[in-house]
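Lab meeting, action items carried over

1. Structure of the two-component assembly. Owner: GW. Status: complete.
Input record:
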Amino acid sequence: QKEVEQNSGPLSVPEGAIASLNCTYSDRGSQSFFWYRQYSGKSPELIMFIYSNGDKEDGRFTAQLNKASQYVSLLIRDSQPSDSATYLCAVSGLSGGYNKLIFGAGTRLAVHP
Amino acid sequence: DGGITQSPKYLFRKEGQNVTLSCEQNLNHDAMYWYRQDPGQGLRLIYYSQIVNDFQKGDIAEGYSVSREKKESFPLTVTSAQKNPTAFYLCASSPGTTLNNEQFFGPGTRLTVL
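Predicted assembly:
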């Protein structure tokens, strides 16, 4: 059974701090990695994706991938109260010839003023 | 505006009823997906379709059915055979089904069994 694991949280950080969200996955053949943000009662919104080992930066967000350790993380710099949401990690791999996404259960982030 | 629409936003079903959830996209995406989300759990794949007139079962297809008669539409029917249908249902689409195709989600339908 291919799995994606995330700490459920809540992860509480003060406004302006760096929030670090972590995700591990079991399938070594996984190729693509996605971070979605989901506000309470809303649908997931794609915020970052990463395919290669190393860091990828987009504004206040940085995704980090280490395939050897089967670990992907999301850093949010200068955290704002509006960043308070659940962050879903999704891992992609080929299954039956199609792009199958396996989702973690998500980490709830709370940014307090 | 390009995007994915789902209707209705809220749906209530009585025991023994079949209900159909609508999903439409105008992004010209080839692939469409249906997921179910339960509280505190990740998304689970119900069905997916890579192309018109073709669809495949996902991980939890029992009690559900779909059709893909048009590229832009992928309705999901929750049948009376689905024993625990109360959940948040999410439709997604992607340009294709290769590994680097991001999936984009509609706003969701929240189904409650009375």
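2. GW to write a short summary for the group page. Key points so far: The mean pLDDT of chain A is 93. Chain A touches chain B at residues 4, 8, 31-32, 34, 36, 42-46, 49, 51, 88, 90, 92-94, 96-106 (CB under 8 Å).
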